[in-house]
């Protein structure tokens, strides 16, 4: 399965899994001395899972969005000098490499956490790490639609016409693959630091960083992203990977509420 197909189903599947875990974890036994690193609360975790999952799953409606405005003959001279060399790249083999590296880099930290802490405690902490990934995906989907930056492959005739003119061809900024892998690696590092195991945390983070590097190179070489998309993705993934564990450490509650005169739903956060 291509990443495009996988990415359409992954947010929904992850949302369902996190929803179930966020409900069942609250009834689990009290944490032992081995962990978990975080306490799971419906008031915090359920809104994160539902809101981020709903936004990330909007990728299902990608075919309904507009495609690349300049396709099929985009002008590479309009690209900034830093990214211009990547314009026109297209290599499906690198796309496969990137997909495999992404999956391995995302799954690896979650497995290590469970192996280290045991199933019950490990799944609690995996929930927080996975939330970082889900929130990152939600932000990437939102910004990619808002920015509508053409992917590098549209600046050449090497890619098939449908891959240069469809809606996905206009979703270059920022790299969700890189952002997700970095967010997962950073959140795992913060988890092991909180457990008092910094050496293991830095080992997992180093492997994750190497994997993210492979993902970044593959995404550029495949014609899916410009170098600046990858850099932005790494920066955003780092920020969210720090933020989500910090929110759980601080005791913040995220509270959904409706305004009588607003006709919508807002999400606020307040310290207890």
Automatic annotation (TrEMBL):
**TM spans (from-to):** 44-62, 199-218, 230-247
The source's domain of life comes to Bacteria
Q: Which organism does this record belong to?
A: Pendulispora brunnea
- Xref: InterPro entries: PAP2/HPO (IPR000326), PAP2/HPO_sf (IPR036938)
Q: Which Gene3D superfamilies match?
A: Phosphatidic acid phosphatase type 2/haloperoxidase
Q: Does the keyword Translocase apply?
A: no
What are the residue boundaries of the Phosphatidic acid phosphatase type 2/haloperoxidase domain, all occurrences included? 127-245
Q: Does the keyword section mention Nucleus?
A: no
SMART domains per UniProt: acidPPc
Q: Which UniProt keywords apply?
A: Membrane, Signal, Transmembrane, Transmembrane helix
Give the signal peptide as a residue range, or say none if absent.
1-29
Q: What is this protein called?
A: Phosphatase PAP2 family protein
């Amino acid at each position: 399965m291509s990443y495009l197909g996988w990415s359409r189903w992954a947010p929904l599947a992850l949302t369902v899994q996190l929803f179930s875990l966020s409900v069942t974890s609250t009834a689990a036994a009290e944490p032992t001395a081995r962990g978990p690193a975080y306490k799971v609360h419906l008031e915090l975790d359920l809104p994160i899972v539902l809101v981020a999952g709903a936004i990330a799953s909007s990728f299902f409606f990608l075919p309904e969005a507009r495609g690349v405005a300049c396709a099929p003959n985009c002008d590479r001279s309009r690209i900034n000098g830093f990214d211009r060399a990547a314009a026109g790249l297209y290599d499906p083999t690198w796309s496969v490499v990137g997909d495999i590296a992404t999956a391995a880099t995302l799954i690896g930290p979650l497995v290590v956490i469970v192996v280290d802490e045991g199933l019950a405690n490990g799944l609690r902490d995996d929930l927080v790490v996975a939330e970082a990934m889900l929130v990152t995906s939600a932000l990437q989907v939102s910004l990619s639609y808002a920015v509508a930056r053409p992917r590098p492959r549209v600046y050449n005739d090497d890619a098939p016409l449908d891959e240069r003119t469809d809606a996905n061809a206009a979703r270059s900024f920022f790299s969700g693959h890189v952002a997700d892998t970095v967010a997962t690696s950073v959140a795992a590092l913060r988890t092991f630091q909180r457990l008092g195991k910094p050496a293991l945390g830095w080992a997992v983070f180093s492997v994750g960083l190497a994997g993210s590097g492979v993902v970044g190179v593959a995404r550029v070489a495949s014609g899916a992203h410009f170098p600046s998309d990858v850099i932005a993705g790494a920066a955003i993934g780092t920020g969210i990977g720090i933020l989500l564990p910090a929110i759980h450490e601080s005791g913040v509650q995220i509270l959904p509420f409706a305004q009588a005169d607003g006709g919508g739903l807002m999400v606020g956060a307040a310290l207890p």
